[in-house]
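Changelog note: in this version the structure field was regenerated for every chain. One regenerated record is shown below for reference.
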Amino acid sequence: MTELSTLAAPARHEALIKHSRFIALAERHTAEAGMREFLQRAHEAGANHHCWAWKSGQQYRFDDDGEPGGTAGRPILQAIEGQGLDQVGVVVIRYFGGVKLGTGGLARAYGGTAAECLRHANRERLVETRRLQIRLGFEHVDRAHQLLAQFRAEKIGECYGEHGLDLEIELPATALEALSDTLNDLTRGQVTLQQLDFA
């Protein structure tokens, strides 16, 4: 499986192609609602087109915004995928310069501007994570908390009850088995681990 990255910070790239000005803006967005909000923020009143694409996991959307079908949104999406990126949205704004580019020229202009923007963007690796609920006795609480940093786990929530502690964490999928084994050893099997499904 190819390791994916996402954007560590917003990115921008501008190109002048046959007198048309293309401005690519890219941001990290895990949800379509965030992408829609980004699109509203990116809107420039004098521009002719605001073409865009967004991809997060198995979800994706794109729009040609009045350009001939398949000449803008899809090439932008292909630029995102071609750069090995996920959870990313790109808007390419076009100011028409008076010279028609043709369908091939448009696809190259939109896809190329998006790809160049992403090529120079700051990235960070996307790590597949799992959520886990841990139930253990009071005597193991301190040691369990120490293990979180060791396994790069993030505490989502905790609740103390009469039995001890219910702890919800998120950790890299690759660390799940090792943490489970370590907790079982620590508590001599007196721990309950439940993997939580994402909604």
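Spot check on this record: Residues 102-119 form the longest helix (18 residues). The longest strand covers residues 20-28.
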